[in-house]
Specification:
By secondary structure, this protein is an alpha/beta fold. It is 33% helix and 23% strand. The strands form four sheets. It has a six-stranded mixed β-sheet with strand order 6-7-8-3-9-10, sandwiched between helices. The structure holds adenosine-5'-triphosphate and magnesium ion.
Length: 529
């Protein structure tokens, strides 16, 4: 009997916030043993739906049912105790505790005296991590792990709770390709155990790889619910965006311009021999005004470290950075910013988006010195900048005065990008700028980056989506184990060439145009040392 019924459902659930109808009489059901994709643009209501299901919010109208019975969870703790395990988009484990403590937080094994049985906890955590193929030391403190591994710990925790439903809100946004495959292994184990999984992601390929069913939300409304394999990607995207199929179809895979950009000859950024053992082993690269330089590489290749080294975050063992021929003090973000280097890091939380301040304040805070030629910044000048970026990035908020914490995850990301862009940098380093951003906005950001390069900005673009690197870059640098293994330019920049360089550490035999040994204008390596 029970098999035919949803394990978790909401019937005509409505949730209002001041000025926004975040959920509008949405009905949704999750079947046991099903992986159910929940999709929609930034701000469509996905996280709100999840929060209504798990007791973070009470619906204003409608009901929630778990295993066929109406429930009214008054907190996420209650829904977890009942058997709903959730990884929230923005939630955090506790950085200073160990991996094992995080896995067992709130349900620690106790010994006869009622104290936490630490050896057993470490053993059990090791067993759980091992079962899911996650390589983390149970005794290590959580903050010693990469962002991706921390997320894997959250996933191990969620999966190991004896749950009937597991909910994942953008679980892969900080994962590398290999970790995503580990996660999918976990999800398959859950599915085989008859557990229902809700999966939120903006990455189409992932949805089609792992999900059985799909529900599409738009502006808080249910647009479609059904089997995923019946829908093409294009149909799905057009439902998400609310545009006609042919309108969506006109666009290519990404939104970088078709025509070639023309880069100046003299580099705006010259990085030489960046060395930070053991992560960076002598990385050199050039960026010219008007070009997008892609950085490709696998987990641990040193892309983020390269970006940070250029921006002066972290001390180097060796290396130098110049902007327009002038040396920039390394190890000093303040010097880098003064020289015109901007850096959008992959972890938006650590990089001081200030949740309680408004959208306006978050955007202009860092730019004030630049907007104020004569020391005074007119409100009007601020408003203009804020309005321009809210418009060009499509930041969805009730207005510039809304606190950033109330924005959906993707819109917070856009606010951070706007903050850097309004500083008018000479060099812009973007580490995963389109992560967590919906397909429509992603295209807008790609277009914007393209426009910025056309206006003469030098851009360093890091993305774990090779397609984006390939479509966007004028030149691409392949990094492996902290060293440059190759540079491609123009038509040579293809997924195939990049993959073969990353796999072999050299370009595929016989690439024309002679990148090998011939990267005359700079970004050659210096890596083996
Ligand atoms: N606590 C809140 N206060 C006010 N408005 C809110 C609050 N939480 C969400 N909203 C609004 O509700 C709408 C839906 O937001 P939600 O976070 O559910 O979007 P989402 O689909 O998860 O988007 P994303 O893909 O960007 O994560 C948005 O307009 C958002 O600004
Ligand atoms: Mg969300």
């Amino acid at each position: 009997m029970e098999r035919a019924n949803p394990v978790l459902e909401v019937r005509r659930g409505t949730k209002r916030f001041p000025g926004v109808l975040a959920l509008d009489a949405v009905t949704f059901g999750l079947m046991p043993g099903e992986v159910h994709a929940l999709v929609g643009e930034n701000g469509a209501g996905k996280s709100t739906l999840i929060k209504v299901l798990t007791g973070v919010y009470q619906p204003d109208e409608g009901e929630v049912l778990f295993r066929g019975e109406e429930v009214s969870f008054s907190s996420p703790g209650e829904s977890q105790a009942a058997g709903i395990s959730t990884i929230y988009q923005e939630v955090n484990l506790i950085p200073l505790l160990s991996v094992a403590q995080n896995v067992f937080l709130g349900r620690e094994p106790r010994n006869g005296l009622g104290l936490i049985d630490i050896p057993r906890m470490n053993r059990d955590a090791g067993e759980i991590l091992g079962r899911y193929g996650i390589e983390a030391d149970p005794k290590a403190s959580l903050n010693s792990l990469s962002l991706g591994l921390q997320q894997m710990v959250a996933i191990a925790r969620a999966a190991s709770i004896d749950a009937r439903a597991v909910i994942m809100d953008e679980p892969t946004s900080s994962l590398e390709a290999k970790e995503v495959q580990t996660l999918f292994g976990v999800i398959r184990q859950l599915r085989e155990g008859g557990i229902g999984v809700i999966y939120v992601s903006h990455r189409m390929d992932e949805l089609y790889e792992i999900c059985d069913a799909v529900t599409v939300l738009r502006d808080g409304k249910l647009v479609h619910s059904g089997s995923l394999s019946k829908l093409s990607k294009l149909e799905l995207v057009s439902m998400m965006l609310g545009r006609e199929l042919d309108e969506v179809q006109k666009k290519g895979a990404t939104n970088f311009g078709e025509e070639d950009r023309t880069a100046a000859e003299e580099p705006v950024l010259e990085a030489r021999n960046l060395t930070q053992r053991p992560l960076l082993r002598g990385v050199s690269l050039d960026v010219r005004p008007g070009e997008i330089l892609g950085l490709a590489g696998l987990l641990g290749a040193g892309r983020t470290e390269t970006a940070k080294a250029i921006f002066g975050a972290g001390q180097l063992d060796a290396g130098s950075v110049k902007v327009n021929g002038k040396a920039v003090k390394t190890g000093s973000p303040a010097s880098a910013i003064r020289a015109g280097i901007a850096f959008l890091p992959e972890d938006r939380k650590s990089e001081g988006i200030i949740p309680d301040l408004s959208v306006r304040e978050n955007i202009v805070a860092a730019a004030l010195p630049r907007l104020s030629r004569a020391g005074l910044v007119s409100e009007k000048a601020q408003d203009e900048v804020v309005e321009r970026f809210m418009g060009s990035l499509g930041i969805k908020a009730s207005g510039p005065d809304q606190p950033v914490r109330e924005l959906s995850g993707g819109n917070q990301q856009k606010v951070m990008l706007a903050r850097w862009l309004c500083m008018n940098p000479k060099v812009l380093i973007l580490d995963e700028p389109t992560r967590g951003i919906d397909v429509g906005a992603k295209a807008e950001i790609q277009k914007l980056v393209d426009d910025l390069a056309r206006d003469g900005l030098g851009v360093v673009f890091i993305s774990s989506e090779l397609e984006e690197v390939v479509e966007g870059s004028d030149r691409a640098v392949a990094l492996k184990e902290g060293a440059v293994v190759g540079v491609l330019s123009g038509d040579e920049v293809s997924e195939r060439n990049l993959l073969s360089m990353l796999a072999e550490g050299g370009t595929e035999g016989g690439t024309e145009g002679g990148t090998e040994g011939g990267a005359t204008d700079g970004p050659e390596n210096g890596g083996q040392g």
